[in-house]
Amino acid sequence: MSAQQELLPEPADATAAGPQFKDLHPAVRVIAAGSVTAAAVALAVLFALMLAEAAARYLFASPLGWNVSLVERVLMPGAVFLALPWMYACAGHVSAGLVYSRLPSSVQTAARVVTLIAVLGSAIVLLVAGVNGAASAFALGDAPPPGSSDIGLPTWVWLSLQPVGALGLLAVALIDAPRFLRSGEVES
């Protein structure tokens, strides 16, 4: 097994990404692997933080206070937006496969074109809106007031999670477009 194959493992559950996951472009697989790793780290930290908060609150009667801000501003958006490339690569999204598989070939082709346009358009909207939000926050020096219960990160840091995930989705969708337009999404 080559070093590259070790860096790009198949999903643990073959039904999660289907047998065609290995047929995706290597760059798509790398971006997807980085995406799912980042989202998994966000979820693991969220889990550990919730345990720590419960222990602090109920065992020591001293809640953390800043944990809600970290969860709602960094960890949950990180888990959602950073997972976008992975969700595209493993077809882990809402699908109409039951209907799609019964459509004539020409209609399936048209549906793939419309779907790709929708994915690319959505990724561009998320990217532009996220960059605008993060750039505005950076330009204004927006940050929580000192001594507040908010996590002490400049606002642009956590706002940058959206455009990073959207950029990954856009890259994965563009790289995968020729395969997707030929054969559709990865099937389980």
From TrEMBL:
The membrane spanning regions, by residue number, are 30-60, 80-101, 113-135, 155-175
Its keywords, alphabetically, are:
Cell inner membrane, Cell membrane, Membrane, Transmembrane, Transmembrane helix, Transport
Show where the Tripartite ATP-independent periplasmic transporters DctQ component domain sits. 47-175
State the annotated membrane topology for this chain: Multi-pass membrane protein
One Pfam family, short name: DctQ
**UniProt cross-references to InterPro entries, sorted A to Z:** DctQ, TRAP_DctQ
The UniProt entry lists the main location of this chain as: membrane
So what family is this one in? Answer: Belongs to the TRAP transporter small permease family.
Protein name (record):
Tripartite ATP-independent periplasmic transporters DctQ component domain-containing protein
